[in-house]
Q: What sequence folds into this?
């Protein structure tokens, strides 16, 4: 009824309106609106006003946001300009400091000239002649002066040889590339090992070294060449004053001028009291050697691998041909960072040549300034996102991982930087390796001024090395689907967390590939690099859990009190017998020491030894063999082989005469020095994926003779880390713990009998050289991995048992064996899977190869 009355009133109003005409329209409209307002409770007009106010407020917010964005942009530009000015000032200060240093050194040279008299020398340069004395034949009419006709070419450096501290400069060329080693003697005994000088290439090489020739009577240059050609264009020996050099080094540590001479004298006096004159000489020589070795090595490499406009165009051209390249999702854990360094880290991602990335900033900082910085980045770039650090809730991490757009994920430490070409090179590699589930790159360190140093040129995929340390750290990209199946993102931040992730992921895939480019710059900041580190115990637990998941019994320990590497000792099954094969010919003194240390020191209870006697004729040797046969009846036998020497045949005969599940090949001039060596080696040899197991061999003076074999030296292979102190960790820990390598020496090698049979034993065509390398490469070709255990050490009295044989038939044999290896293994020999192509391989110095 009420609705009908309203409709009647509306019709009545309409008729009245038409009668009253246009002049009454406004009045009737007002009347109608009043009636509608009455009927709706008076809310429409107030809602309209509220809506307008809200719209005005929204417009103001947008205006304020736009103004804020402009201010942030301006501030960003201001900071960039300020940074550029600061860098310019820093460069200028360095130039001034360099000039002052030159002036200061000139002043010191004059003020301390009388100290030269202490050494009794004056600066003088000698240019000795080289006389070929072994495996070399003079050439005429060609670019090269000598031809190497054997495997041991040698030059004698003619006297007089300057005594004391000497700067040696060598310039020459060789084809193929040849490492050159300096050997010296103070009488009849040649000092071992020699000093590796560098590598001569076909294009030509020049290098300098500081050497101490104080007690040297003769010297020799040995190019590790094999068959080839060589020319030495310059050899000079410049005498130096150790005091002048000591003062010069001391001056580098002195800041300011007044009173300069007094402070220098005081510093030298303290050194004399503390170390003595000989101590100063040794310290000065050590420092000069280190400087001469490191100067400009990496700088030269960087100059030849500059990311310039030409490289940028090439990469973009290649990228344009890629079909649907993947999105890469990167994570940064933000924990109390230095704002300027965090900014550099984020900017390095934004500066990527490759555009298809997203960056997740996991904020664990309570700093409002840091939070504002992160929010500013997120508001300016939609690819940057801020996520909470909910580490205690795995479901949050799982949901986050499922939601990221990237097909591949990676991690960047909050102070580290990416090279501008990092992601584009990674994606281009993925485009050519569709099976890759994990890819990783080389890295170096960068300081606050942008200076780069300490490169880590990484090996190829090395599962045993990954147990020793997180060598994949830096730019490492994981396929997201594999990460999900392996248990998701790391449950803790830092390198330990990523180490755990890498171990979990690589238990599910072996498709792990290296991109041999330096694309990641870890921050060297303050007293140590701001790396993703955690407690030592956490790292040990990560590796121990990996062994447990894999069903491998073992223990994990730090490699040393100051080490960041882990020794994984795998527990062997001691019921499996080990047979030890020892070829010998006379040298009873060496054999006696070898057997005594073997039977007395070794803790592994289930082993026997077989000495393969290759024609011994001395009574002392017969006495040693008889004595050990009586002492260890049932565990010791002698196999007589009166045939021409063939190391491979002796090894094969020894294996055939024994029955151990594991076999060890051991030189007669080795000495056991630790009881656990057989247990440690057997723990790895019993793993089904492992082929040959080797160890670190030491010279009697304590320096390294063998730390694994690197392919490529002299066209075939050479020992790694020769001459380094026994305490040295090796290149990024290679001597500290277990690591994969292409081959190990048969001077001490363990292998399962079934693997030995599958390979077919040692190749008897290789009678002397390369038979162990050939065996190891056959193992690799069948899918096995070889490993060198840095935790296992034996002494190798190699120089005592090694002689020189210049007979023509032996030179012919060396050439034949060299050529056989090149024909059979050329591809592997030129590309060692466990040695980075950016490093010198001839010899394996682990220094950047800039050639």
A:
């Amino acid at each position: 009824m009420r609705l009908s009355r309203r409709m009647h009133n509306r019709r009545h109003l309409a008729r009245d309106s038409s009668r009253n005409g246009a002049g009454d329209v406004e009045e009737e409209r007002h009347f109608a609106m009043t009636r509608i307002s009455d009927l709706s409770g008076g809310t429409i007009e107030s809602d309209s006003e509220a809506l307008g106010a809200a719209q005005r407020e929204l417009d103001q917010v947008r205006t304020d946001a736009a103004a804020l964005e402009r201010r942030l942009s301006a501030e960003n530009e201001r900071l960039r300009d300020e940074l550029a000015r600061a860098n310019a000032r820093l460069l200028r200060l360095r130039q001034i400091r360099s000039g002052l240093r030159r002036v200061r050194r000139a002043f010191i040279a004059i003020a301390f000239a009388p100290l030269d008299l202490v050494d009794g020398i004056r600066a003088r340069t000698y240019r000795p002649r080289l006389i070929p004395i072994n495996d070399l034949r003079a050439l005429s009419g060609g670019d090269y002066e000598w031809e190497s006709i054997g495997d041991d070419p040698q030059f004698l450096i003619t006297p007089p040889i300057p005594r004391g501290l000497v700067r040696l400069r060598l310039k020459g060329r060789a084809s193929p590339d040849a490492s050159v080693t300096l050997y010296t003697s103070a009488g009849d005994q040649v000092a071992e090992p020699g000093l590796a000088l560098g590598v001569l290439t076909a294009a030509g090489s020049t290098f300098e070294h500081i050497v101490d020739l104080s007690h040297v009577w003769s010297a020799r240059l040995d190019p590790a060449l094999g068959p080839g050609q060589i020319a030495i264009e310059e050899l000079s020996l410049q005498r130096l004053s150790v005091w002048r050099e000591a003062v010069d080094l001391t001056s580098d540590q002195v800041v300011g001028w007044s009173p300069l001479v007094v402070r220098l004298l005081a510093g030298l006096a303290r050194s004399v009291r503390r170390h003595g004159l000989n101590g100063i000489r040794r310290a000065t020589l050590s420092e000069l050697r280190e400087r001469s070795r490191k100067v400009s090595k990496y700088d030269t490499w960087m100059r030849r691998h500059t990311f310039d406009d030409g490289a940028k165009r090439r990469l973009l051209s290649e990228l344009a041909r890629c079909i649907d390249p993947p999105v890469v999702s990167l994570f940064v854990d933000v924990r109390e960072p230095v704002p300027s360094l965090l900014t550099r880290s984020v900017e390095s991602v934004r500066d990527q040549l490759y555009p298809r990335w997203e960056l997740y900033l996991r904020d664990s900082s309570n700093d409002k300034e840091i939070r504002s910085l992160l929010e500013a980045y997120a508001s300016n770039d939609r690819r940057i996102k801020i996520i909470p650090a909910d580490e205690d809730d795995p479901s949050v991490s799982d949901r986050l991982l499922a939601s990221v757009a990237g097909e591949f994920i990676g991690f960047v430490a909050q102070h580290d930087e990416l090279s501008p070409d990092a992601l584009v090179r990674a994606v281009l590699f993925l485009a050519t390796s569709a099976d890759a589930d994990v890819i990783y790159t080389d890295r170096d360190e960068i300081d606050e001024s942008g200076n780069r140093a300490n490169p880590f040129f990484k090996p190829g995929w090395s599962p045993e090395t990954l147990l020793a340390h997180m060598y994949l750290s830096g730019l490492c990209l994981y396929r997201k689907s594999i990460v999900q199946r392996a248990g998701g993102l790391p449950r803790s931040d830092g390198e330990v967390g990523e180490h755990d992730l890498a171990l979990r992921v690589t238990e599910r895939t072996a498709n792990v590939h290296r991109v041999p480019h330096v694309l990641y710059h870890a921050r060297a900041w303050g007293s140590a690099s701001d790396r993703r580190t955690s407690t030592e115990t956490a790292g040990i637990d990560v590796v121990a859990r990996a062994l447990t998941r894999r069903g491998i019994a073992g223990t994990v320990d730090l490699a040393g009190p100051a080490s960041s590497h882990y020794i994984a000792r795998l527990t062997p099954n001691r019921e499996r017998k080990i047979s030890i094969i020892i070829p010998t010919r006379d040298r009873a003194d060496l054999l006696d020491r070898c057997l005594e240390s073997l039977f007395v020191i070794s803790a592994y209870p289930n082993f026997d030894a077989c000495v393969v006697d290759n024609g011994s004729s001395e009574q002392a040797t017969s006495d040693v063999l008889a004595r050990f046969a009586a002492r260890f009846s049932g565990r010791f036998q002698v196999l007589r082989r009166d045939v021409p020497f063939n190391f491979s045949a002796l090894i094969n005969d020894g294996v055939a005469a024994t029955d151990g599940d594991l076999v060890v090949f051991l030189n007669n001039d080795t000495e056991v020095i630790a009881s656990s060596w057989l247990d440690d080696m057997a723990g790895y040899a019993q793993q089904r994926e492992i082929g040959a197991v080797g160890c670190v061999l030491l010279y009697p003076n304590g320096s390294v003779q063998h730390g694994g074999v690197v392919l490529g030296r002299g066209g075939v292979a050479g020992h790694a880390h020769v001459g380094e102190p026994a305490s040295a960790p090796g290149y990024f820990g290679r001597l500290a713990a277990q690591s994969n390598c292409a081959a190990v020496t048969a001077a001490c090698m363990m292998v399962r009998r079934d693997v030995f049979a599958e390979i077919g034993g040692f190749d008897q065509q290789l009678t002397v050289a390369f038979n162990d390398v050939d065996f190891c490469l056959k193992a690799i070709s069948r899918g096995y991995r070889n490993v060198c255990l840095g935790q296992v050490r034996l002494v190798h009295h190699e120089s005592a048992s090694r002689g020189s044989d210049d007979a023509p038939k032996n030179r012919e044999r060396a050439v034949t064996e060299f050529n056989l290896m090149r024909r059979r293994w050329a591809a592997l020999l030129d590309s060692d899977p466990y040695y980075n192509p950016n490093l010198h391989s001839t010899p394996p110095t682990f220094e950047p190869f800039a050639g």
Summary: The chain has five domains: 2-42, 47-111, 125-299, 309-534, 578-829. Residues 1-23, 249-264, 526-534, 799-805 have pLDDT under 50 and may be disordered.
